Amino acid sequence: MHLKEALESCRQHGAAVLATNFYNAETLLAVLRAAREVGSVLILQTSPATLSYLGLETAVAMARAASREMGVTAWLHLDHARDTDLVRRCIEAGYDSVMIDASEKDFDTNVRLARDVVALARPRGVLVEAELGYVPKLGEREAEEFDMTSPEQAKRFVQETGVDLLAVAIGNAHGFYKRQPRLDIGRLKAIRESVDAFLVLHGASGIPDDQWIEAVRNGIVKVNFATEIKDTFMACLREAISGSDSIDIRQVFPPAMQAVTALVKGKMQLCGWQDSRVTPAK
User: Which letter, b or e, does each residue of 22-39 get, where b requires 16 or more Cβ atoms within 10 Å of its Cβ?
Assistant: First the structure.
């Protein structure tokens, strides 16, 4: 099954695909185990920092091999790239989708860079994601209404770029929230009615379950989930290390992996894949 087919099925059935970042073998295996146990598909995301840490070829080989061994339908996505050369390398390495993030630049520059990446990706059948609006990153100020994605700009952006996926700003933020978020579902509905692109929710860590479910029901078909994975893994790892004298890393990592698997299983259930009529190819 191609990623585009999965996203289209999600849009038809009010479901979403969970997109989880991985950082090493342990987090990769943990999220794949969650998908296998829930019976869900998965998008495996690598940030530029992860690719710098692991190496591009190593990251791709790990993701592909682990997915096959686990029997999980998973796609590989480049998350928040700002360097078009890295985007090109990931396309050539066989990624299923790539994100060019020029959301902090002016509208015209964002359009130009997204259009350039679409031109690189389209001949190879690779999907392109871009971001429009202000989705705060860790430590930045909270978004105001005028920072959020407008339906009018979203329509123009998609028409001018041809992107396949659009990450929207509707009250979400990357990293930890300073206070409980309140997603603007009305804005989301208006954007969904204005564009043909698949809609993406970034910053899902910390979003209450009811708002997560509402966002999926109202047009979000890809949900990015990362911060809580790192936080959960490291908290459990610190506890395991503090209570053990073992030098065998194969003994201290499993509790952290199990905690991440449990966390991700719960988030997958919020996405509704296993409850919908969407089924991966055999």
Answer: bbeebbbbbbbbbbbebe
